[in-house]
Amino acid sequence: MGCLDEGHLNVEVESVVSNGCVELGLEDETNTIAIEDAVKVLLLGLGEDINREGIRKTPHRVAKALHEGTRGYRQKVKDIVQGALFPEAGLDDRVGHAGGAGGLVLVRDLDHFSYCESCLLPFQVKCHVGYISSGQRVVGLSKLSRVTDVFAKRLQEPQRLADEICTALHQEIKPAGVAAIIQCSHIHFPNIESVLLDSKHQGWVKILVSSGSGVFENKSADVWDDFLNLLKFRGINREKIQLKVPSDQCWCPSLSFLSADASSKIEALNPASVTAVASILKSLGEDPLRKELAGTPGRFVKWLMNFRTCNMEMRLNSFHRNGMNSSNTNGKVDLNEKQICSELNLPFWSQCEHHLLPFHGVVHIGFLSSEEFNPIGKSLLQSIVHFYGFKLQVQERLTRQIAETISPLLGGDVIVVVEAGHTCMISRGIQKFGSSTATIAALGHFSSDSSVRAKFLQSIPSSTFSGGL
C-alpha cells in the first residue's frame, strides 16, 4: 500500500491526546506563546507595525489557527475507532457480492483541509474512503470522517495523507481491505513579478491520488471497480487517478516555482524570519530538520515577502494626473449621454492581515462613459488591483482602496465589486468549504442611483469565481 513501516504507524496511531477538543495545557500554552513571538518577528520583517490596530491581535489569531489546523498531532486514532466497532452477523472473512458477505462500505465527499508541509499554506481535501468488512465487524460511519480528519490536521502531502488514512483504518478495524481516493486542491500563489508577466496565471494546482490496503493493494482487483463505479458520477475514473505519485514529483507550487529561473532573482532571506518559521514548526510538534521540512521555512518566508509594505513601486499621483486629464466631468452628469462600461474578472491575490492566510479572487469595475471620454486601459486597472492586493489586507479595505484610486481616473462615477475565497474560512475550524465573499464600493452616481448600480451588478456573469475544489 504505501511507505509506512510498522514503527511509523504505531507513532501515528498512538499519538498524544484523545480525540476531540482539548483545553490547552501548560506545554500548549508555552508553544502558543512561542508561535506568537515568531509571528511578531515575521510581521516586523514585513515592515509592519505590530501595534497597529488591524494586526495587534494577529499573532494570537495565527497561533490559534495553527493550533486548530494541526490538532491531529494530539489525537489518537485508537480512541476514535475502538469505541465504535459493532458486531454484524453474516460478515465474516469471506469477500462476496450479492448473496455473499463482506460488501463494500463507502463514504464519499469528506471535506477537510490540511497544511502543506512544503510551504505551510493550507490546501483543500475531498476524501472518499471505504472498506470491506470482515470478522463480523463494522465501524460507525462518522468515525471514517473523524479518522481522515486526524491525518488531514497535520503537515501533509497528498500521497502520504492517503497512505496514513488507509494504514490506520486497516490496523484498527481489521477489515479485508481499505481504500481511499483523495482530491487535493492547492492554491497557486504567484509572486508579484510572475503575475505581472503572466495574465493567465492559474490559481489552483489539483491532484487526485489513491491508496489501498488488503484486497485493495492490487490496483487491478475487481474491488476497485466497485469503488470507482460508485464515484463515476463525480467525474472520477481510473484514468484520472495517480495510483502512486513518484517520490521525486513535487505537487506544491512553491517547489515548482523555486526550480524555475525566477528563483535566481529572489533576494537573500532575513535569517530572523527563517528562524521564526522553524520555531513555529517545532512548536507544532514537528521536527524542522525532517527531510521534507528542511526547506519549508525558507519557502514560507519567500512567499510571505510578497506582502512587504514597500514591495511594489507605483506612482499613484501621476496616475491621478493622467486620469484627470483624460476625464471630461464638468458640472452635472447627463445619464442619457453616458453608458455603463466595465472591466470584469481582473484577478487578484492577497493576504489576510488577521490570520496571515491567503485569499484571492476577481475584481469587477464599472464606470460611466461618454463618447468624449477616453478611459484608462485594462492593464493599468490590473496594476492598481495588484498594487493593493499584494499587501496585508482585509477585503473591505481592498475594495474601497481600489474604488477611491480609480475614481478620478474614470470620471468619478465608479463601482467596484470584489469576489474572493478566503482560506481562513476553512483552515481555522469554521470549515466553510466553497464559500466566497463579495464586497462593493460605489462612488458618484453608482452610489446615489440604485437603478444604475443594479444594472451593473446584473451584468456580472454568474459563476465568475470558484474558491477551490
Q: C-alpha Rg, in Å?
A: 26 Å
What is the makeup of the main sheet?
A: 5 strands, mixed
Quote the beta fraction: 15-25%
CATH superfamily of the largest domain: GTP cyclohydrolase I, C-terminal domain/NADPH-dependent 7-cyano-7-deazaguanine reductase, N-terminal domain
Question: What is the ordering of alpha helices and beta strands?
Answer: HHHHEEEEHEHEHEHHHHHEEHEHEEHH
Low-pLDDT runs: 1-23, 96-101, 258-266, 323-333
Helix percent band: 25-40%
- CATH topology name of the largest domain, in short, is GTP Cyclohydrolase I, domain 2
What would you say the CATH architecture of the largest domain is?
A: 2-Layer Sandwich
Q: Give the spatial strand order of the biggest sheet.
A: 5-2-3-6-7
| Count of spatially separate domains | 2
Approximate shape: globular
Write down the overall mean pLDDT: 80
The helix/strand class is: alpha+beta
Number of helices: 16
CATH class of the largest domain: Alpha Beta
Distance between the first and last residues' Cα: 26 Å
How many runs of DSSP E, i.e. beta strands?
12
Please, could you describe this protein's structure?
This is GTP cyclohydrolase 1. One of its GO terms (molecular function) is GTP cyclohydrolase I activity. Helix content is 35%, strand content 21%. It is of the alpha+beta class and 469 residues long. It folds into two domains: 6-307, GTP Cyclohydrolase I, domain 2 (2-Layer Sandwich), CATH 3.30.1130.10; 316-459, GTP Cyclohydrolase I, domain 2. A hairpin with a 4-residue loop joins β8 (339-352) and β9. The longest helix has 20 residues, at 26-45. The model is unreliable at 1-23, 96-101, 258-266 and 323-333 (pLDDT under 50).
